[in-house]
Amino acid sequence: MSTKESELDVIIRKAEKTDMKDVMSLIKELAAFEKLEDQVKINHTILEADGFDSEGRPYFGCLVAQLPNVSKIIGYALFFHSYSTWNGKAMVLEDLYIQPEYRKRGVGKKMFLEVMKLAYKTGMKRVDFHVLGWNPAICFYKSMGAVDLSETEEWKLFRMDHASLKSLFT
User: Fold this and answer.
1) Which residues neighbour 149 within 8 Å (Cβ) at sequence distance 6 or greater?
2) CA 8/CA 40 separation, integer angstroms
3) What sign does the dihedral 107-108-113-115 (CA atoms) show?
4) CB contact set of 103 (below 8 Å; sequence gap of 6+)
5) Which end of the chain is more exposed for a tag (fewer CB within 10 A), N or C?
6) Is the separation of the CB atoms in 95 and 108 below 8 Å?
7) Which letter does DSSP use for residue 93 in this model?
8) Is the pLDDT of residue 3 over 50?
């Protein structure tokens, strides 16, 4: 394959509950790509429950990239709302993943722009996301106008995982 193939015709749409098995497979692919397979602790049933809450309070939103005329999902973007005490409504883009054989064909860019459009139209003041330091997508994100806060503002990302939380209260 050449480094830049022709743009792929793809449908970017809001994910449905029935897509979560495919999304879960892609989440596992992403974890393997990031060499973090052991970190995945959920399954498609949890995605279905958390993303399609019957009381109308989903924990995340999701878009999928689908090839036209087939039901094959080749990528996803998963995001959720957050809040900035300095700016107000915000969004976190948790994952944006396109299967390797469909990369460099405009699919990732279409997906990214669709998420950014959704954020803009719903009044989000910013969209935050994390990228592993070795991921070549960093160049793409910078070309789209994203700012690396670890370089410009020296922000450090911290986490309290489940074991850390548990140790505080047991």
Assistant:
1) 155
2) 30
3) positive
4) none
5) C
6) no
7) E
8) no
Q: Which of 76, 97, 102, 141 is catalytic?
A: 141
Token pair of 3, please?
């480094």
Q: Tell the burial category of 109 from Cβ atoms under 10 Å away from its Cβ (0-12, 13-18, 19+).
A: middle
38-52, 78-92, 122-136, 146-160: which has the minimum mean pLDDT? 146-160
Contact present, 117 and 110 (Cβ < 8 Å): no
Instruction: Reply yes or no on whether 102 is catalytic.
Output: no
Q: Looking at residues 65-83, what average pLDDT do you find?
A: 94
Return the SS3 of 127.
strand
Q: What is the pLDDT of residue 53?
A: 83
- Average pLDDT rounded to a whole number, residues 1-28: 87
How far is Cα 52 from Cα 56, in angstroms, rounded to an integer? 7
| Its pTM surpasses 0.85 | yes
DSSP character string of 45-90: HHHHHHHS-TTS--S-EEEEEE-TTS--EEEEEEEEEEEETTTEEE
pLDDT of residue 5: 65
Q: How remote is the C-alpha of 5 from its chain's centroid?
A: 24
CA atoms of 77 and 49, how far apart (whole Å)? 18
62 strand-pairing partners: 78
Three-state DSSP at 155 gives coil
